[in-house]
Amino acid sequence: KAGVTQTPRYLIKTRGQQVTLSCSPISGHRSVSWYQQTPGQGLQFLFEYFSETQRNKGNFPGRFSGRQFSNSRSEMNVSTLELGDSALYLCASSYRELQETQYFGPGTRLLVL
Amino acid sequence: QKEVEQDPGPLSVPEGAIVSLNCTYSNSAFQYFMWYRQYSRKGPELLMYTYSSGNKEDGRFTAQVDKSSKYISLFIRDSQPSDSATYLCAMKGAFNTDKLIFGTGTRLQVFP
Question: Best of A43, A56, A60 to disrupt the B interface by mutation (most B CBs within 10 Å)?
C-alpha cells in the first residue's frame, strides 16, 4: 500500500506571498491532519479534515487554512507568509477522525525569506 | 508548562547499549500513548502504540506507561546505528475530538 505523499517537498517563498501544499493520504484513509514542525516548538497541530469537513483546529491564525476533496486528498494554504512560517509541514492520515495511530508523509519544507 | 515534556537530548550511546527515552505529562485525561521515530529529512513513523497503563513489547522495543506518575518510557535493547533518529512521544485523550499532543523529541545517536 502506498504511503502518504506530499508535494512539493521543498519550497522557497518570500514574505507576503501565499503557498499551497498538497497531501494524498493512504488509500482508504478518510482523515487528514496537518502539523507544523519547528525546532523550538516541535510538532504542532494545525487542523484535521474528515469527509471533506474540518473537524478540529489548532491555535494558528486564520492565514492558515485547508480543505479536503471527495477523494480525501487535502490541501493546506498559508496566505501572507511571515518569516516565522518557515517550518516542516507534515500531513498525517488515518482511517477514522483524529485516530491515535496516524501515518505521516515526508513533509514539505517551507523556507520564507 | 507544556502538556508533554521530553528531554531534547542529544543522547549518544555505543552500539549494543540499552536506551531509555522518557516523557512526562500533566493531563490525566490522556489514554493513548505513542512513540514515533523520525529520521532526518523524513516524516515521523509510528513505532509503538499503547492504550492506558502497562507494558508493550515489539522486538527490541518496549513501551511502558505509568499513569499514576504520568510518565512514559521507551526502551531500546541492543541499540544499532540504524536507531539513530529523533524519538517523539505523543498522547491523546479518549474522545474522537481529542488531538494528538507531541513531545518535542529526543535526538538519539548510536555510534559503532
Answer: A43
